[in-house]
Amino acid sequence: MGTVFRLLNHRGLSTRRLAAAVGITQGRLYDYMNNKSRVEKLALFEQISDALRIPGGMLGLAKRPWEPRGAEPVAGPILEPDGNDLAAIDAFRNADKQTGGGRLYAAVIRHLKENIASRLVDAGSEPQVFAAAAALSEMAGWMAHDSGRDARAQSHFARALPLARTSGDAPLAANIAASSSHLALQVGEVGEAVHWAKVGLQFAGQGPQIPSLTARLYSMHARALAVADQGTVALRELERAHDALTSSAEATHPWISPFDEASLASESALTYRDMKRYDGALEYADRAVTLRESGRARSLAMSQINLVATHAYRGDLDAVLHFGVMLLTTNPSLGSVRVINQLTDLRRMLDSHSDHRPVRDFLERFDVAAKTRLLLLADIMAPGNEGTLS
How many domains does one find in the chain? Predict the structure, then answer.
């Protein structure tokens, strides 16, 4: 809200009039505008919505009494995005595949503030602006997650969803719900993960059909159910994911990252692993590594980690060492705290086999490589993540 107030002030609305309109003192308004305080009370959000005629859905509120009937956003066709917005998100997305999101997060936030935010309060803005804001906010959430800042990632996803709904882009809203499901699972909120996967499937059913998006949502639902010990239902949802990805010609969407066979293989491997069905997990983990092109460095690294971990679960130490050596050479400067954390988990798992001399020798090499990664990632490590692999 501080950003909104600054933009309105910049466009000629005095701080005195702004404060009077929303029923606060100028001193309090200055605190909001200078990021010294945050709007948190529901009643104040409602005051701001009513005073500035901001639709309730844009602030996470119910439809306000003054909004006309039919004001609730409904699913519409996929709108052609502005060329500059699309070029920006493509550039960020391509860089993210190579370097990880940690080093790009600040750039995406700056782009949102400098190139998107002012257009959101322009009465002449087209719905595409809200879609661009939603897509970039979701991207910022993933980059925050990749930097180990999960609370901030959750905040970005929460902001992205109403923007997507305002734009009327149902597939984009569904994709953001899938991201929320993934994050919930990562932080151990299994019930939330199930909830967001279901919400995403509801959104996906409202708009143009994107088979890869539907596959992603079914796979997220399957993973959450597997963690919740509902293996039979999880396998059914996983089968639906595979059917969705292969049953029809792919439709594209300008704001949504592709979910391909390698992505589904990775999610399938994790689902089977959570159900302790390690032979099936190994089949999919191996397939994910084979399919994942080297141009997506983070995805390849995470697929390799999963493959090594699956061999460890199966007790095949020779395979652990063989694929582990390959893992150590994977892009040590990759800016991803997620990769660091997964390597930490793998290190703990392998430590239980350290009485085996070849494993002990490998762990010595592992620790040297880990220290190198930490040194190269020191600039993006969030407080509390430093020294994770030491």
Answer: 2
Q: Considering the domain boundaries, does residue 155 fall inside one? A: no
Range(s) of the domain holding residue 366: 293-382
In a domain, 388, yes or no: no
Domain for residue 323, yes or no?
yes
Inter-residue contact 216 to 253 (CB < 8 Å): no
**50 vs 173: CA distance, rounded Å:** 25
Question: According to the model, what pLDDT value does residue 335 have?
Answer: 57
Q: Which CATH number goes with the domain that contains 33?
A: 1.10.260
Q: What is the pTM of this model?
A: 0.74
Token pair for 107: 């750039």
Where is the domain boundary, 27, 56, 85? 56
Domain assignment of residue 126, yes or no: no
Answer yes or no: are the C-beta atoms of 104 and 130 closer than 8 Å: no
Given pLDDT bands bounded at 50, 70 and 90, which one contains residue 299?
A: confident
- Express as a percent the part of the chain with pLDDT over 70: 86
Residue 343 has pLDDT above 70, yes or no: yes
Distance CA(352)–CA(121), nearest Å, equals 57
pLDDT, tens digit (0-9, with 9 covering 90-100), for 165-211: 888 899 999 999 999 999 999 999 999 999 999 999 999 988 788 99
Cβ 137 vs Cβ 159: under 8 Å: yes
